[in-house]
Structures are given as structure tokens and as C-alpha cells.
């Protein structure tokens, strides 16, 4: 009988051995995948035992996100509070039990929960765990300027739209403000109040970060891109002349200027920018074809996801869209190059992308990678990582950037953008107005930078559902925000 | 100097006592707001209880294996600590059951101290007793259905799972019957299988009727294992497996609850919010423990209001998930190794025994212990479909704890007789 017993014993031990293997599978092999699953209630609750890192404004003092500790059944749980409410809601996002996470709360989660692979953090949280202390996450310091952000929100008023301001020489995002916004404190328990937010546009979508994921028609602000392509092609200078009949003929049809009653006659490219003459750019588009314009767009960052630390699914690629899908024309037959040239065809852009255009022109043609996280701090205040400035590419030669700056300066000095003038500061800008198909309702835009020559700020203001034009609606907002930034704290 | 078996047992128990103290201390430190310092008296009480068991063993079974009792002690300590951490009230009740368990253990040892083999002559009475206990919950009036399985007998607030004891009686019956008939059975004449098939068929019918498949698998596994050891004929095992698969296919067709369990086992994710919720969250709980675990008392088992449990039946069917999260892979692998060692010592006792009844008895008891561990932990780990049975010595539940103490006492008696000096 003993040989049978020993065989049975081996079998019985193998059964329990299989349990050890299966446990290893779940705890070592499958664990990371399971941790990311949305159904994971354990993970969702366990995050509350971690003292999440705080999120700060650019001054390093103002708290965008902090915690309120509460003892629940003997366990200390940390619930998220957002002291500034809707001020930077779309960048900061939220971290909740019922609706998961958004914004930097989502994309910086590993740092905020101290679970990133950075050596200092690994040692810190390891020691915390060994000593039985609760884990404290790393703090995130953003680049946003609280006061300018407040000014931007106030200036937007009831208008649905966005303001994005970037420091051209570094890529530092100073302002990213949207209207309508929402109070992240409501997401956990009073979510339906967010659903009831109304604004002066057909689709309020308060949770949408319009600045990075909104869909706007650039209108004439896009002429800055076309002008760049024209200058870079070597076939045009600011003195290139054309005669404006008040319209441009494309495929045998008239494409009109904004105001067809007063044709400009013989004008230069410089004047065409200053007065935003559509027919001039329509001709450039026809002459260049879509290829060089698309290439210039790519140099400015169109056709790829604009870099930023917020989650990728909260950002949108700018470019030509056809039936809701991004498309890249291969020849003039795929697109109407004349309309493309002044931004009136199937172009969809984000305010962030247009701010990048202004910033690159301001920074002598060098496009800096935008960033909204300045540094990560350990709970003791030591710098864990600091964002390094990074050149994304060159969009213009320094000379072309300079002449384009001067033309844009003329827009503000004596062109369509006079509303953006700031006394004692050289401001360069470009207006834009796009018809939306709804009678009397436009999307308006203004991109600008200042001071010309030594730029401190580049800005894009884009508005929905406007009755006015870019120069009267968006330009005054840009002026207020730039003024707030240039004044300093 | 070579220590005697009992002194080794005592030393091991002291180590177990220290581990227990450490466990309760960690729970106390981690959850001091809701756990009182008196909780540490649990550990003292626990050690005292096992010292009593040790003294009884010293008197009644002085040559018995010195590792079985301390390992059982360690497993109950781990169980009690975890139950305490999950719900101090349950731990108090489990502590009472532990007292009764040690009492039953002592009574079993004292009554059978001279010769447990006289049980062999009552095998048919025992066999009928086993069936009677199984039928009990099916009787109207006293039978109760809990969590979909009709396994319970209730008298007022007092509830009891007779199936746990029926398992041990069945092993006693099989050991006696197979010892007597093993030669003729090995020849494979059908008529000798009559009583066996009858008992088995009865047990199966009752199990299907009570809707408890985990126990069905357990009983059948015990039956096949003992038949194999008695006859050394693998063909019986193969035949039995075929029978089992046929039976399983039938049950699958007939009982919707079984179909649900199998569907969830094959792919739980589409049912993560419905029927598969418990299993899926338990897997999340295990995975969350990772390599080192969260530490005793620091796991996450309730929603953030602190009271609603994320996983229902955590301290009975799913206690392994709780342990896996708090002790981590390192901890539960160690716990499973204790189970392996216990099983190894049990089989060792079976091999050392010099008569067929003892061998079959120890084999049956040990294999039952191993298979029960495999069925519940394997179910929780999605190795096999989930069925609700208890994890021996660890899960919360009186009947199971008492039955396992009887099992332990019988194993000690077999090993005591095998190792006693002949004179």
C-alpha cells in the first residue's frame, strides 16, 4: 500500500504546489494589468489611504489640489479638495472614487501616489511601507499663473472659449483657461450639478478642456501659417504685390473677401496680413498648392498630438478634418488650397496649437515644447524631477520670423487688431473670424505675442458663438491677459 | 541530546505562540482606533489553549508526530488573526469555537487513547451515520439554506454544518470497509463494489439535492483516493473519473447555479459587475497584495465609508484573498507551505502505520485536508470553478473548525500508534 500512498502524497502536494504557482501568477505576473482595470474597487478605495501629492500653481504656494484627512473606521482616508474650484479645473482635473480621474490627476497619478519608478520615490515609499507609515505622494508644481488665469476667466465672461498663453522662449504654459469651467469638488458627490451648467453656446460641455481638445476653425489667424509657408518657399517677400479685386476665383467660382464692397487694389503681402485680405492668400494658396502649406503646418505641430502633460485623450490633433476624421491631402484635388490658405476650409485647430504658432513666430522661428508641469517635489520638498526645456523644431528662418513679426505688429498698430494695443508695449497679432454655418454666429480668434523683439508671452484666444469679429471679441481678451502677464506678480 | 517528540512539539508551540502574539500586535498597531489593547489577550488565551491541547497529547498520545499540532496551531492563529482584523465580533465567536474545538480534540484523544482501531468494527453504523448527517439539512424544519446551498441545520440562533462531520465518518467507514474488502476489490468483481457504490451514490444524490458541489467534488475525491490506495489499481481511479465527469456534465445541464459558476470561471470579466463580482474583486484583492502584501490590518476590504465590504463572505470562502492581500505572495506562499508540510506529515503517518485500517484512515484524512484546501483556494484563484467550502483551520466557521480538530486528533492517534515503541 505504501507505494500507492506515496504516489497519492505526491499528487496531493502537487495540488497545493499548483496553488502557490497560481498565487504567484496573480500577485506577480497579472497584478499590474489588474491594477489598471476600471472595475477594480480595491484599487479605487485603496488610493484613499495614500496621501496624494498636492498640485500647486506656478507660484509654488497656491494650492490647486490638496487633501482632507478623515478617520473612517479606524483608518485614515484622504479625500481630495480643490481650493481654487474651477480656476484651473481642466488642467488639474479630478481624482475621485466614482468617476476615476482626469487631467494632471490622471496623467501624473504615478507621481501623486508615489508609485513612480523614480529612485528617490521608490526609496521613500519603501521606507514608509516598512515603518508602517501611510504613503505620501509627490507634489506637482504647475506653470500656471494664478492671477493671469483669473484675469483670463473674467475676460472670457459668458463667452464659450479658451485662452492659452505660452512663454515663447521656454514653452512654459502661463494660462490655460476655458469657459465654461466646473468645480472639481462637485465631481464626487454632486456630479449632476456639473451637468446642469449652462453657457452661451449650443454645447456647454463644461468638462471639456477646450484649450487642448476643443475644435475651432482658425479663420484668418491661419494666414500666419500660410505666410510662413510663402516666405519659407523663397517665392514671396513682404514686398510681393498682387491686385485685390475683392475676391479670388477658384475652380471658376468667386471666393470673397470679408468685405467685398471695398477692394484694396494693388497691395503687398505685408498689407495683406495687416488688413487680412482673403483674395491675396487665396492666390498664394493656388500658387503654392497644398504641399508646402501642409508641410509648414507640420513644422508648427499640426498633424501630431501637441505635447503637454495632460492625458493624451484630453488633447486633440489640429489639421484638416473630413467627416470627423483627420486627413492629409496628397494633391490639390483633395483640398481647396485657396480656402485652406486663409483658414476657411475643413481646418480644425485647438487654442493650444494656435498659441504654439504665435510662440514660434515670436521666438525667431523656434518652436519650444509646451509644458504645464514645472517640477515634481518629494514630500520633504526636494526636487524629484524638473521639466527640461525642449526645442520641438524650427518653423521659420530668423529673418522670415522677424519680417512676419513686423507685419503682425502692423495688424495691432493700424490693422484689424487695434483692440489689442497695450500702451508702451510692441504687440504683434493676427485676427480671425470664421463663419459657422449658423447665420450671424461666428467663431472668432486672436493670436498675439508681446513685446516684439523680446517676447514674454504668446497667446491664443478662441471663442465660439460670436456675433462680432476676432478683432472686436477676442483681441480685447488677449490684451487684458497679456497685460496681466507683462505686469508680473 | 535528542529532544523527545513532545518536547519538540512544545518548542514549536512556543514559536507559534510568539508568531500569534506578533500577528495580533500588528493588527492592534495598524487599527488601534477600533481595536482595544485587550486584543493582545487573545494571543495569551490562544497560547494557553494550545498548551492544554499539548498536555492532553502528552498524556494520551506521547509518541505522536510533534509537528501536526503546532502547524494546526499556526493555521488557526493565522485564521483567527485575520478574522479578528476583519471583524472583532466574529473573532470572539471563533475564539469560543476554538475552545470547543480543543475540548473535542481532547475528548477524542482520551476516548480513543487505547485503541482507535475498535472504530473499525462499527464501520456500517458509522457509514449510516455519515449519510444521516448528510441528509439532515435536507429535512424540513431544521434544514436551512444559506447562500444557495442547503448545508445547514439550525436550532434557533444556533447553526451547524453536519456535512463537515459526515466527511470524517465517511473516511472512517471507507477505511474499515476497504481494509476488509481490498483483496477482493482488487480482483475487480462488480458485486463487491455494491455497498461502495451504494454509499457513494447516496452521498452524491444528497449533495446534488443540497446544491453543494464543492463538497461533492471533495467526497468523490476522497473516495477515489482511498479506493486507489486500498487496491493499488489506477484503472479504478480512471473509471471513477469518467463517472465523475459524466455526473458533472449531467449536473451542469440540470443546475443553473453550476452553469453560472462554470461560465464565470471560464471568463469572469464580462460578469464583473454581476455574478462574477465576488470572484473578480477577490482577484483584484489578491493582486493588490503583490509580493510583500499591505501588512496585517492595512489591507483594503471595505468601501471608503469603512463599513460596506467590497467582497462578501470574505472571512469564510474568501479568507484566502484577504490573507493574500495583507501577507502578500511571501506570506501566503508560506501559509501554503505549512499546508504542504501538514499534508506531508499526515502521509508520513499513513506510511509508518503497520495496519491497513490505520493506513487508509490517515490517508483519507490527510487527502481530505489537502483536497479541501485545493478546492477552495483553487476556486478563489480561478484555477477551478469556485465552490464555497472552508479553508481548513483558517476560515471563520464553527463546524469546520470542530471537524478539523477531530481530524487532527485521529491523525495524532494513528501516528502515535505507528511510532510507539513495541515491547
List the helices and strands and how they pair.
The complex is a heterodimer of chains A (489) and B (423).
Chain A: H1 2-29, H2 31-35, H3 41-46, E1 55-56, E2 63-72, E3 75-81, H4 89-92, H5 103-107, H6 109-112, H7 119-130, E4 139-142, H8 146-156, E5 161-166, E6 173-179, H9 191-195, H10 210-213, H11 223-233, E7 241-244, E8 247-250, E9 253-256, E10 265-268, H12 269-274, H13 278-288, H14 290-300, E11 319-322, E12 325-326, H15 337-341, E13 347-348, H16 351-362, E14 366-368, E15 373-377, E16 383-386, E17 391-394, H17 398-414, E18 428-435, E19 442-450, E20 457-466, H18 470-487
Parallel strand pairs in A: 1-4
Antiparallel strand pairs in A: 1-2, 2-3, 4-15, 5-6, 5-20, 7-10, 8-9, 11-12, 11-13, 14-17, 15-16, 18-19, 19-20
Helix pairs in contact in A: 8-18, 11-13, 11-14
Chain B: H1 5-30, H2 40-60, H3 68-86, H4 88-111, H5 123-135, E1 143-146, E2 149-155, E3 158-160, H6 163-187, H7 194-210, H8 213-231, H9 234-254, H10 256-266, H11 277-289, H12 319-352, H13 356-380, H14 398-419
Antiparallel strand pairs in B: 1-2, 2-3
Helix pairs in contact in B: 1-2, 1-3, 2-3, 2-4, 3-4, 3-12, 4-14, 5-6, 5-7, 6-8, 6-13, 7-8, 8-9, 8-13, 9-10, 11-12, 12-13, 12-14, 13-14
Folded structure, characterized:
The complex is a heterodimer of chains A (489) and B (423). With 489 residues, chain A is an alpha+beta fold. Chain A folds into two domains: 42-142, Penicillin-binding protein 2a (Domain 2), CATH 3.90.1310.10; 146-182 and 200-373 and 389-487, Beta-lactamase. Helix content of chain A is 36%, strand content 21%. Chain A has 18 helices and 20 strands. In chain A, strand 5 (161-166) and strand 6 form a beta hairpin. In chain A, helix 8 (146-156) packs antiparallel against helix 18 (470-487), helix 11 (223-233) crosses helix 13 and helix 11 crosses helix 14. The longest helix of chain A is centred in the first third of the chain and has 28 residues, at 2-29. The N and C termini of chain A lie far apart (90 Å). Chain B is mostly helical and 423 residues long. Chain B has one domain (5-419). A three-stranded antiparallel β-sheet of chain B has the order 1-2-3, with no helix packed on it. In chain B, strand 1 and strand 2 (149-155) form a beta hairpin. Chain B is globular and about 65 Å long. At the A-B interface, helix 1, helix 2, helix 3 and strand 3 of A face helix 8, helix 11, helix 12 and helix 13 of B.
Amino acid at each position: 500500500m505504501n507505494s500507492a500512498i506515496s504516489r497519492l502524497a505526491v499528487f496531493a502536494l502537487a495540488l497545493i504546489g499548483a496553488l502557490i504557482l497560481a498565487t504567484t501568477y496573480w500577485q506577480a505576473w497579472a497584478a499590474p494589468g489588474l491594477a489598471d482595470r476600471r472595475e477594480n474597487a480595491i484599487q479605487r478605495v485603496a488610493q484613499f489611504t495614500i496621501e496624494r501629492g498636492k498640485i500647486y500653481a506656478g507660484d509654488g504656494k497656491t494650492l490647486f489640489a490638496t487633501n482632507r484627512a478623515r478617520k473612517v473606521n479606524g483608518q485614515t482616508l484622504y479625500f481630495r479638495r480643490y481650493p481654487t474650484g474651477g480656476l484651473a479645473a481642466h488642467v488639474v482635473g479630478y481624482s475621485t472614487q466614482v468617476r476615476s480621474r482626469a487631467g494632471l490627476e490622471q496623467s501624473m497619478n504615478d507621481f501623486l501616489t508615489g508609485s513612480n519608478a523614480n529612485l528617490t520615490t521608490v526609496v521613500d515609499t519603501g521606507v514608509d511601507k516598512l515603518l508602517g507609515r501611510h504613503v505620501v505622494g509627490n507634489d506637482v508644481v504647475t506653470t500656471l499663473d494664478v492671477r493671469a488665469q483669473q484675469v483670463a476667466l473674467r475676460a472670457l465672461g459668458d463667452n464659450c472659449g479658451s485662452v492659452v498663453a505660452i512663454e515663447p522662449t521656454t514653452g512654459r504654459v502661463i494660462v490655460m483657461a476655458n469657459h465654461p469651467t466646473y468645480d472639481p469638488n462637485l465631481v464626487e458627490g454632486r456630479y449632476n450639478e456639473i451637468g446642469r451648467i449652462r453657457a452661451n453656446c449650443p454645447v456647454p460641455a463644461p468638462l471639456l478642456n477646450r484649450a487642448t481638445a476643443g475644435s475651432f476653425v482658425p479663420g484668418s489667424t491661419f494666414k500666419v501659417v500660410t505666410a510662413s509657408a510663402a516666405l519659407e518657399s523663397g517665392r514671396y517677400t513682404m514686398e510681393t504685390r498682387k491686385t485685390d479685386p475683392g475676391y479670388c476665383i477658384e475652380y471658376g467660382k468667386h471666393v470673397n473677401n470679408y468685405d467685398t464692397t471695398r477692394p484694396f487694389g494693388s497691395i503687398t503681402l505685408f498689407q495683406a496680413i495687416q488688413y487680412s485680405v482673403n483674395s491675396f492668400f487665396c492666390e498664394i494658396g493656388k500658387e503654392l498648392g497644398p504641399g508646402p502649406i501642409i508641410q509648414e503646418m507640420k513644422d508648427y505641430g499640426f498633424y501630431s498630438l501637441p505635447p503637454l502633460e495632460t492625458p493624451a485623450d484630453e488633447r486633440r490633433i489640429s489639421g484638416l478634418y473630413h467627416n470627423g476624421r483627420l486627413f492629409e491631402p496628397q494633391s490639390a484635388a483633395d483640398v481647396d488650397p485657396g480656402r485652406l490658405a486663409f483658414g476657411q476650409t475643413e481646418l480644425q485647430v485647438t487654442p493650444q496649437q494656435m498659441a504654439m504658432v504665435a510662440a514660434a513666430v515670436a521666438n525667431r522661428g523656434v518652436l519650444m515644447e509646451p509644458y504645464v508641469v514645472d517640477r515634481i517635489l518629494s514630500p520633504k520638498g526636494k526636487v524629484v524631477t524638473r521639466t527640461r526645456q525642449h526645442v520641438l523644431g524650427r518653423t521659420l528662418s530668423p529673418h522670415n520670423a522677424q519680417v512676419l513679426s513686423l507685419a503682425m505688429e502692423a495688424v495691432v498698430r493700424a490693422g484689424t487688431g487695434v483692440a489689442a494695443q497695450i500702451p508702451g508695449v510692441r504687440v504683434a497679432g493676427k485676427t480671425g473670424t470664421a463663419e459657422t454655418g449658423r447665420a450671424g454666429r461666428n467663431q472668432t480668434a486672436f493670436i498675439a505675442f508681446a513685446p516684439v523683439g523680446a517676447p514674454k508671452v504668446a497667446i491664443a484666444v478662441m471663442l465660439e458663438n460670436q456675433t462680432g469679429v476676432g478683432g472686436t471679441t477676442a483681441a480685447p481678451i488677449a490684451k487684458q491677459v497679456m497685460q496681466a502677464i507683462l505686469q508680473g506678480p | 541530546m535528542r529532544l523527545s517528540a513532545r518536547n519538540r512539539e512544545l518548542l514549536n508551540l512556543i514559536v507559534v505562540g510568539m508568531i500569534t502574539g506578533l500577528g495580533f500586535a500588528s493588527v492592534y498597531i495598524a487599527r488601534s482606533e477600533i481595536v482595544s489593547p485587550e486584543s493582545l489577550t487573545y494571543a495569551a488565551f490562544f497560547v494557553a489553549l494550545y498548551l492544554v491541547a499539548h498536555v492532553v497529547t502528552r498524556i494520551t498520545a506521547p509518541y505522536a508526530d510533534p509537528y501536526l499540532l503546532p502547524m494546526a496551531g499556526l493555521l488557526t492563529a493565522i485564521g483567527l488573526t485575520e478574522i479578528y482584523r476583519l471583524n472583532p465580533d466574529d473573532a470572539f465567536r471563533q475564539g469560543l469555537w476554538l475552545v470547543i474545538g480543543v475540548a473535542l480534540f481532547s475528548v477524542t484523544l482520551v476516548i480513543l487513547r487505547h485503541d482507535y482501531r475498535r472504530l473499525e468494527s462499527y464501520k456500517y453504523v458509522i457509514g449510516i451515520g455519515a449519510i444521516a448527517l448528510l441528509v439532515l439539512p435536507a429535512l424540513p424544519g431544521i434544514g436551512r439554506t444559506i447562500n444557495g446551498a442547503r448545508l445547514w441545520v439550525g436550532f434557533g440562533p444556533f447553526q451547524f454544518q453536519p456535512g463537515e462531520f459526515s466527511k470524517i465518518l465517511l473516511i472512517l467507514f471507507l477505511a474499515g470497509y476497504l481494509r476488509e474488502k481490498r483483496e477482493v476489490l482488487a480482483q475487480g468483481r462488480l458485486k463487491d463494489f455494491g455497498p461502495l457504490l451504494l454509499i457513494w451514490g447516496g452521498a452524491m444524490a444528497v449533495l446534488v439535492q443540497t446544491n453543494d458541489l464543492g463538497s461533492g467534488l471533495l467526497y468523490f475525491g476522497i473516495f477515489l483516493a482511498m479506493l486507489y490506495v486500498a487496491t493499488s489499481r489506477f484503472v479504478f481511479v480512471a473509471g471513477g473519473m469518467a463517472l465523475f465527469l459524466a455526473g458533472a456534465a449531467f449536473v451542469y445541464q440540470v443546475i443553473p447555479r453550476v452553469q453560472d459558476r462554470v461560465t464565470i470561471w471560464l471568463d469572469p470579466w464580462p460578469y464583473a459587475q454581476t455574478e462574477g463580482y465576488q470572484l473578480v474583486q477577490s482577484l483584484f484583492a489578491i493582486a493588490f497584495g503583490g509580493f510583500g502584501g499591505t501588512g496585517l490590518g492595512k489591507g483594503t476590504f471595505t468601501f471608503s465609508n469603512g463599513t460596506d465590504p467590497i467582497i462578501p463572505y470574505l472571512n469564510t470562502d474568501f479568507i484566502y484573498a484577504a490573507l493574500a492581500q495583507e501577507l502578500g505572495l511571501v506570506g501566503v506562499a508560506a501559509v501554503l507551505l505549512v499546508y504542504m508540510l501538514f499534508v506531508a506529515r499526515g502521509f508520513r503517518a499513513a506510511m509508518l502505520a503497520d495496519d491497513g485500517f490505520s493506513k487508509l484512515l490517515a490517508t483519507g484524512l490527510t487527502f481530505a485536508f489537502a483536497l479541501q484546501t485545493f478546492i477552495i483556494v483553487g476556486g478563489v484563484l480561478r484555477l477551478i470553478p469556485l465552490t464555497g467550502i472552508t479553508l481548513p483551520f483558517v476560515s471563520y466557521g464553527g463546524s469546520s473548525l470542530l471537524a478539523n480538530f477531530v481530524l487532527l486528533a485521529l491523525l495524532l492517534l494513528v501516528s502515535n500508534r505507528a511510532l510507539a515503541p513495541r515491547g
